[in-house]
Protein backbone atom coordinates (compact mmCIF):
# COMPACT_ATOMS: atom_id res chain seq x y z
CA UNK A 1 0.00 0.00 0.00
CA UNK A 2 1.51 3.35 -0.99
CA UNK A 3 2.00 5.93 1.74
CA UNK A 4 -0.48 8.77 2.10
CA UNK A 5 0.58 11.99 0.40
CA UNK A 6 -1.81 14.43 2.04
CA UNK A 7 -3.80 14.97 5.23
CA UNK A 8 -7.08 13.64 3.78
CA UNK A 9 -5.43 10.40 2.67
CA UNK A 10 -3.69 10.06 6.02
CA UNK A 11 -6.93 10.46 7.97
CA UNK A 12 -8.73 8.04 5.64
CA UNK A 13 -6.08 5.34 6.03
CA UNK A 14 -5.90 6.00 9.77
CA UNK A 15 -9.66 5.49 10.19
CA UNK A 16 -9.82 2.49 7.85
CA UNK A 17 -6.92 0.57 9.36
CA UNK A 18 -7.89 1.36 12.94
CA UNK A 19 -11.46 0.17 12.28
CA UNK A 20 -10.14 -3.14 10.95
CA UNK A 21 -7.87 -3.58 13.97
CA UNK A 22 -10.64 -2.69 16.42
CA UNK A 23 -12.93 -5.25 14.76
CA UNK A 24 -10.24 -7.90 15.31
CA UNK A 25 -9.71 -6.72 18.89
CA UNK A 26 -13.43 -7.21 19.59
CA UNK A 27 -12.68 -10.96 19.56
CA UNK A 28 -9.89 -10.64 22.14
CA UNK A 29 -10.37 -11.01 25.88
CA UNK A 30 -7.94 -11.39 28.78
CA UNK A 31 -7.35 -15.08 27.98
CA UNK A 32 -6.84 -14.70 24.24
CA UNK A 33 -4.69 -11.59 24.78
CA UNK A 34 -1.91 -13.91 25.96
CA UNK A 35 -1.80 -15.80 22.65
CA UNK A 36 1.00 -15.36 20.16
CA UNK A 37 1.38 -16.13 16.48
CA UNK A 38 3.06 -19.42 15.51
CA UNK A 39 6.86 -19.30 15.84
CA UNK A 40 6.78 -16.03 17.77
CA UNK A 41 6.81 -15.31 21.49
CA UNK A 42 5.20 -11.86 21.30
CA UNK A 43 1.68 -11.94 22.68
CA UNK A 44 -1.37 -9.99 21.56
CA UNK A 45 -0.89 -7.92 24.73
CA UNK A 46 2.70 -7.23 23.72
CA UNK A 47 1.64 -6.13 20.26
CA UNK A 48 -0.91 -3.64 21.59
CA UNK A 49 1.55 -2.35 24.22
CA UNK A 50 4.15 -1.89 21.47
CA UNK A 51 1.82 0.03 19.17
CA UNK A 52 0.73 2.26 22.06
CA UNK A 53 4.34 2.91 23.05
CA UNK A 54 5.42 3.88 19.54
CA UNK A 55 2.57 6.34 19.12
CA UNK A 56 3.84 7.94 22.33
CA UNK A 57 7.37 8.00 20.94
CA UNK A 58 6.13 9.91 17.90
CA UNK A 59 4.79 12.63 20.18
CA UNK A 60 8.06 12.77 22.15
CA UNK A 61 10.04 13.16 18.92
CA UNK A 62 7.77 15.95 17.79
CA UNK A 63 7.72 17.73 21.16
CA UNK A 64 11.49 17.50 21.54
CA UNK A 65 11.97 18.78 18.01
CA UNK A 66 9.70 21.82 18.34
CA UNK A 67 11.25 22.62 21.74
CA UNK A 68 14.72 22.64 20.17
CA UNK A 69 15.89 19.63 22.15
CA UNK A 70 17.86 16.81 20.62
CA UNK A 71 15.57 14.20 19.08
CA UNK A 72 16.61 10.60 19.52
CA UNK A 73 15.16 8.52 16.70
CA UNK A 74 14.36 5.77 17.33
CA UNK A 75 15.41 6.17 21.00
CA UNK A 76 18.38 7.42 22.99
CA UNK A 77 21.16 4.85 22.79
CA UNK A 78 19.47 2.79 20.05
CA UNK A 79 19.82 2.51 16.29
CA UNK A 80 17.13 1.18 13.96
CA UNK A 81 18.91 -2.18 13.76
CA UNK A 82 18.63 -2.54 17.55
CA UNK A 83 14.85 -2.43 17.80
CA UNK A 84 14.54 -6.04 18.94
CA UNK A 85 16.45 -5.19 22.13
CA UNK A 86 14.58 -1.90 22.54
CA UNK A 87 11.15 -3.45 22.09
CA UNK A 88 11.69 -6.49 24.37
CA UNK A 89 10.87 -4.65 27.62
CA UNK A 90 7.89 -2.95 25.95
CA UNK A 91 6.45 -6.36 25.07
CA UNK A 92 7.23 -7.71 28.55
CA UNK A 93 5.50 -4.78 30.27
CA UNK A 94 2.49 -5.35 28.05
CA UNK A 95 2.33 -8.98 29.13
CA UNK A 96 2.12 -7.85 32.77
CA UNK A 97 -0.66 -5.33 32.15
CA UNK A 98 -4.36 -6.24 32.40
CA UNK A 99 -6.02 -6.38 28.97
CA UNK A 100 -8.63 -3.66 29.69
CA UNK A 101 -5.84 -1.29 30.77
CA UNK A 102 -3.89 -1.98 27.57
CA UNK A 103 -6.96 -1.33 25.44
CA UNK A 104 -7.71 1.88 27.29
CA UNK A 105 -4.16 3.14 26.79
CA UNK A 106 -4.23 2.10 23.14
CA UNK A 107 -7.51 3.91 22.52
CA UNK A 108 -6.17 7.05 24.20
CA UNK A 109 -2.99 6.91 22.10
CA UNK A 110 -5.03 6.49 18.91
CA UNK A 111 -7.28 9.41 19.83
CA UNK A 112 -4.24 11.58 20.60
CA UNK A 113 -2.50 10.74 17.32
CA UNK A 114 -5.64 11.32 15.26
CA UNK A 115 -6.23 14.65 17.00
CA UNK A 116 -2.62 15.60 16.31
CA UNK A 117 -3.08 14.90 12.60
CA UNK A 118 -6.36 16.82 12.46
CA UNK A 119 -4.71 19.85 14.09
CA UNK A 120 -1.93 20.06 11.47
CA UNK A 121 -2.13 21.53 7.99
CA UNK A 122 -0.88 19.95 4.79
CA UNK A 123 2.32 22.01 4.80
CA UNK A 124 3.36 20.83 8.25
CA UNK A 125 2.47 17.21 7.52
CA UNK A 126 3.76 16.80 3.97
CA UNK A 127 6.46 19.34 3.18
CA UNK A 128 9.99 17.96 3.11
CA UNK A 129 12.47 19.50 5.53
CA UNK A 130 10.01 21.12 7.93
CA UNK A 131 11.53 19.07 10.76
CA UNK A 132 15.17 18.06 10.62
CA UNK A 133 14.60 15.02 12.84
CA UNK A 134 12.35 13.39 10.23
CA UNK A 135 15.22 13.06 7.77
CA UNK A 136 13.96 12.08 4.33
CA UNK A 137 10.43 11.42 5.61
CA UNK A 138 7.75 14.02 6.22
CA UNK A 139 5.95 14.43 9.53
CA UNK A 140 2.87 12.87 7.96
CA UNK A 141 4.87 9.80 6.93
CA UNK A 142 6.11 9.42 10.51
CA UNK A 143 2.54 9.71 11.78
CA UNK A 144 1.47 7.04 9.31
CA UNK A 145 4.30 4.74 10.32
CA UNK A 146 3.43 4.95 14.01
CA UNK A 147 -0.33 4.76 13.41
CA UNK A 148 -1.94 3.15 10.35
CA UNK A 149 1.09 1.08 9.31
CA UNK A 150 1.32 -0.29 12.84
CA UNK A 151 -2.44 -0.91 12.88
CA UNK A 152 -2.17 -3.04 9.73
CA UNK A 153 0.72 -5.14 11.01
CA UNK A 154 -0.91 -5.56 14.43
CA UNK A 155 -4.16 -6.66 12.82
CA UNK A 156 -2.37 -9.24 10.70
CA UNK A 157 -0.38 -10.57 13.67
CA UNK A 158 -3.39 -10.78 16.00
CA UNK A 159 -5.49 -12.54 13.37
CA UNK A 160 -2.71 -15.15 12.95
CA UNK A 161 -2.52 -15.66 16.72
CA UNK A 162 -6.29 -16.09 17.02
CA UNK A 163 -6.42 -18.43 14.03
CA UNK A 164 -3.61 -20.60 15.41
CA UNK A 165 -5.52 -20.98 18.67
CA UNK A 166 -8.63 -22.40 17.00
What are the SSEs and their pairings?
Layout: H1 7-25, H2 44-66, H3 83-95, H4 99-118, H5 122-126, H6 139-146, H7 148-165
Describe this structure in words.
This protein has 166 residues and is an all-alpha fold. 64% of the residues lie in helices and 0% in strands. α2 (44-66) packs across α3, α2 (44-66) packs parallel to α4 and α6 packs parallel to α7 (148-165). It is globular, with a radius of gyration of 16 Å.
Low-confidence stretches: none
**Helix share, percent:** 55-70%
Beta strand count? 0
Q: Supply the number of helical segments.
A: 7
Shape: globular
Q: Give Rg in angstroms.
A: 16 Å
Summarize the structure.
This protein is mostly helical. The radius of gyration is 16 Å and the shape is globular.
Question: Which features would summarize this protein structure in a list?
Answer:
single chain; 166 residues; mainly alpha; 7 helices; 0% strand
Amino acid sequence: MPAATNKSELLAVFDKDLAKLRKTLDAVDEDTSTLSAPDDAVTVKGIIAHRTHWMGMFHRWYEDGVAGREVFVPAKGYKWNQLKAYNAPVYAKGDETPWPDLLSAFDAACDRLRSFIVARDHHELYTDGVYTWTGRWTLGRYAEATGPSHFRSANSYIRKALKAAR
